[in-house]
Amino acid sequence: MAGRGRARGLSILSAFALITVLVVILAATGGSRAESGAVSLTPEERAWLNAHPVIKLAPDPDLKPIEYFDENGVYRGAAADHIHTLEKKLGIRITIVHLQNWDEVMDAFKRHEVDLLGAVEATEDRGRYMLFTDPLVVVPGGIFSAREFGKPLAIKDLQGLKVAVVSNYMAHDYLRNAYPQISLDVVPDVSTGLAKASLGMVDVYVENMANATFYLQEAGITNLRLVGKTDFMYRWGIGVRKDWPMMRQILNKGLAALSEEEKAALIGRWIHVKAPPWRPSWAFVAGVLASVAGVLLVAAVLINLTLKSKVSARTAELQRELAERQRLEQELTRLNEQLEERVRERTAELERQVTDRRRAEEALQQLTAGLEQRVRSRTAELEASNRELESFTFAVSHDLRAPVRHISGYAEILNEELEAREYHYAGGYLARIMVSCRRMQEMIDSLLALSQISRKELQCKQVDLSAIARQIMAEMREAEPHRRVDAAIADGVAATGDPALLRSVIENLLHNAWKYTGRKEVAHIEFGVDTSGGEPVYYVRDDGAGFDAAYAGKLFTPFQRLHTDAEFAGTGVGLATVQRIIHRHGGRVWAFSEPGRGACFFFTLNTESA
């Protein structure tokens, strides 16, 4: 019985609220007397519309019955009907954008991703970034609660209570600015606010009467009552971008052109109200009172008969209230568990911060150790450079001495024969002198090139090694077109380093492969990269003469050759040049071979540590 009494009270309240809405709506729209039909726009207004062919409007997706999207995603409600009517009257097309909730709508509007809002109340905060058209609908605000307060509440009476409001709705903006001392519980939508008020999770919920009564009836909530009214009205107009005053002017012109009948049809389709109350005569009232007295007499008799049923119903209601209290206690327990979880998370975060600081200190220590290691590495490099310099000095003094001895010896013999006037072997001696001179020139040029590598500053950039290898192979084929060489150059091989120096590495290795396969009828040369071990390892492989691996340690020493000039020409500086360039790039170079089975030279690059 108590539940049915509250339901009847809610129905009366809903009727009262809707009648109030109609009165306010009629008061707000009573001044308009424009006739229906198309609106005549000025040339300036038409030019502005032509310059803005795309106009986007984002409605509140769940503001029934003012505006919302139905289950098929169709824009509906009183505001939607106004928008469609304005499109016809003004001859414009407005694109509807479907967003998830009102917060997303406001964020998109502030970023100018949408241009219009379908139904929005004018507030001081919004006025800083938004223009408002004349109102479409005007509705009073209400205060709803499941509690008894003993008197009608006003906004000023809400201090000390927990008040639910929808995020970024008018009640939220108004109470936050005008009554900062009121404790607000901001919810995402109307349904959540009504549910919290119904379950006692908040004391009151502030909302306009049209939305609140619509959702109450739709959700079947029967324990909420109107316990007061707000001191402000909900005046829904169309929200317009701040930088589009011409758009507001055009929309206001369209609204002014709506007739009384059109306005009533647009609003009445969504906000259904009953006819004004009938005023009975005194005779009718007396008859009704007599009938009521008779009914009360019969009811008094029936009360005794139904007392047991009422007690049972009250017991069931108390059990429901007990179950609700237990549910609320469970909710409180859940919230406490969430709070404890947040405390644990914060503790874990602090522990992570301590761990991060410890790691930073360890990283600093590692950096210091790394710097010390780099100093030791640089010292080792200097010592290696000194050893190279000693080796270089020895090579110059030893290897350049041989062609000089040849030149000196043959010149002395030639001089003796010239004095004895014996010219039979003079031509051969001169030829050998010239060969020795050329060889010494080659050795001097190689030594100069080798010495310049250490002095040249690296200019590192991305280098296409495949393209360099193809170009060098093409040059060698052009120089010796009679050679039959099957060259396999891998595609997309690239590295970071000095382009000129890396070209010298590829050139020396490919020239060696070309030279030492010269006695093959069909030679095979391959260039590529192996990334299976994580670090790129570049290689040049051939099937030429090869060398004894026991002497591999001499490969990269200047002027140390594993083949005679009679077998293969050369100065013995090319591989020393390759090694020095690779070391400049922080890499390694090594080789594997067997006599008569070819050779494979490998190298790595690490310009970060170079």
UniProtKB/TrEMBL annotation:
Q: So where does this one cross the membrane?
A: 282-305
Report which reactions are catalysed by this protein: ATP + protein L-histidine = ADP + protein N-phospho-L-histidine
As recorded in UniProt, its EC number(s) are: 2.7.13.3
- For the keyword Transmembrane, the answer is yes
Transmembrane helix listed as a keyword:
yes
* Cited SMART domains: HATPase_c, HisKA, PBPb
Q: Which UniProt keywords apply?
A: Coiled coil, Kinase, Membrane, Phosphoprotein, Transferase, Transmembrane, Transmembrane helix
- What is the top-level taxon of the source organism? Bacteria
Q: Which residues form the Histidine kinase domain?
A: 395-609
- InterPro entries membership: BphY/WalK/GraS-like (IPR050351), HATPase_C_sf (IPR036890), HATPase_dom (IPR003594), His_kinase_dom (IPR005467), HisK_dim/P_dom (IPR003661), HisK_dim/P_sf (IPR036097), Sig_transdc_His_kin-like_C (IPR004358), Solute-binding_3/MltF_N (IPR001638)
Q: Which residues form a coiled coil?
A: 311-356
EC category name: transferase
Which CDD domains does this UniProt record tie to the protein? HisKA, PBP2_BvgS_HisK_like
Which Pfam families does the protein's record reference?
A: HATPase_c, HisKA, SBP_bac_3
The name of this protein is: histidine kinase
